[in-house]
Amino acid sequence: MSAASASTPIQVEPISGALGAEVSGIDLGHPLPGQSVAAIRAALLEHAVLFFRDQTLTPEAQIALARHFGELDVHPIVEGLPEHPEIVRVRKPAGESASFGTGWHTDNTFFEAPSLGTILYGLAIPPYGGDTLFASMTRAYDALSDGMKEMLDGLVAVHSAARAYDPAVTGEAKYRGDAPIRYRHSDAIGKEVRHPVVRTHPETGRKGLFVNPMFTLRIDGLHGAESDALLGFLQSHATRPELTCRFRWRPNSLAFWDNRCVQHYAMDDYHEFERVMLRVTISGDRPF
Ligand code: SIN
Question: Which of 19, 112, 123 is nearest to 62 (CA)?
Answer without folding.
Answer: 123
